[in-house]
Amino acid sequence: MRFFAKFFFIICGFSFVIFFVVLMSDEDVDYVEDIDPLVKYILLYEVPSWMNHPKLDPPDGKCIVTTDKNYLPKIEMFDAVLFSGQHWWMVEWSFPRIRSPHQFYVFVNLECPLLTFHTFAMDPRKELYNLTMTYRRDSDIYWPYGFISDRNLTYLSSADEPNWREPVFDDQIDPELQEKIRRKNKTAAWFVSNCNGKSNRIELVRSMQKTIDVDIYGKCGPLECTWTDHDRNDKCYRLVEQNYFFYFSFENSLCRDYITEKVFNIMSYDVVPVVYGGANYSQHLPPHSYIDANDFATATDLAKYLKSLTRNQKAYVKYFWWKKYYKTVVSRRLYNNLCNKLHDLSSANEEGKPTRRSSHTDIKSWWMKNQCTDSHNIRFD
User: Fold this and answer.
1) Consecutive H or E run containing 255
2) DSSP letter at 124?
3) Distance between CA atoms of residues 48 and 67, nearest Å
4) Over the stretch 168-184, which tens digit does the pLDDT of each residue have?
5) Which residue numbers delimit the Fucosyltransferase C-terminal domain (predicted)?
6) For the chain, what are the domain ranges?
7) CA gap 381, 370 in Å, rounded
């Protein structure tokens, strides 16, 4: 009996503390003095820390992005509130208590469903979201890890059916590129830290290693590329560019539209990416700019093809034709598309405050259903 009495007092005390914090939360707070009706205010309510970075903010001042819940007098005054699908520990009591009719709750996620299924085990939010902002092309706000643009920075790979140029193969090889290729002396490199990916990419590489040499860097292999935070990508990718013909951009999960920075980072260098994932790569990358593992019947067939290209410079160099017309852009201004979307929605009525409409009555179903697979075309042998 004494145990239950003690437990009761602990619960009461904890509840009082929570009540007191909530009661006092609106006092002694420095709010923004002037609320500009032409600006959209975006609150990062529960997102990974890296999403709160000045370089990600819209550059033109049309939107203000903050993690400060007290930036405005009330949370319901924000035009959009962002919640990360990766934060499974968010439970119902932690959500804002009041929500205005014009306010948008945005589901944000860059990880794939197979890595975030736990989000919905405790999460009651399935009917709360109005907008989605993910790597998926059917999101309300498309947020890819990167994209291919033409030289005028026209956003080409965002369209459902991008109008890519037909490959143009010049007989004359650029002397600088020719010299780079001449110096390459290793077949393939792979940087990987997750050794248990659901795509079975480790098994694919092991099968290929029966035919070609694949140098594995990171936790899953014997090699390392050391770096500082400042030169991480450039130093290691330069190492690959100087020595290797191919880089393996193998995803940890086979999910629709799931193409991570592994692809876009390496395409900025003179190395041919070998891709393996669940996306339709032809919607994201120019033709003959990559080699898709799933275009081959077996791992041995793929390995033999790569080996043949290392011995045929004329055939190998054709994979760089696209660089004359396109460039790789790794996503930077994260909130540009969201900002533009909010302003577009504001034109819904005269007050510039759109009536909130729910576009997702079941976010769990939208996010999880028929998105990922464990099947692949290529056979491991």
Assistant:
1) strand 254-255
2) -
3) 11
4) 998 778 899 999 999 99
5) 182-357
6) 40-143+336-368, 151-329
7) 28
Q: Look up residue 165 and give its DSSP letter.
A: P
- Are the C-beta atoms of 268 and 328 separated by less than 8 Å? yes
**CA 98/CA 106 separation, integer angstroms:** 16
In angstroms, the CA 27 to CA 35 distance is 19
Whole-number Å distance between alpha carbons of 31 and 69: 10
Longest dimension (CA), the chain: 89
Show the tokens assigned to 103: 């306010």
Output the CA angle 205-208-214, nearest 5 degrees.
70
What does the pLDDT look like over 68-102, one tens digit per residue? 999 999 999 999 999 887 765 554 556 788 888 88
CB burial of residue 288 (10 Å; 0-12, 13-18, 19+): middle
Task: Answer whether 360's CB lies under 8 Å from 130's CB.
Answer: yes
Report the C-alpha gap between 314 and 318 in whole angstroms: 7
Chain CA centroid to CA 321, Å: 27
Closest CA to 94 of 65, 125, 118, 134: 125
Strand partners, 114: none
H-type helices in the chain, by residue range? 2-24, 113-116, 175-183, 201-208, 232-243, 261-266, 299-310, 313-317, 336-346, 363-368
pLDDT tens by residue, 176-231:
999 999 999 999 999 998 998 899 999 999 999 999 999 999 999 999 997 655 55
CA atoms of 132 and 366, how far apart (whole Å) = 10
State the pLDDT confidence band at 232, using cuts at 50, 70 and 90.
low
- Calculate the alpha carbon distances from 42 to 144, 246, 328 in Å: 20, 41, 28
| pTM (two decimals) | 0.84
24 phi, psi to nearest 5 deg: -90, -5
Neighbours of 102 (CB within 10 A): 19
Fold for 151-329, please state it. Rossmann fold (3.40.50)
Q: Where are the alpha helices (DSSP H) in 193-298?
A: 201-208, 232-243, 261-266
CB 241 within 8 A of CB 269: yes
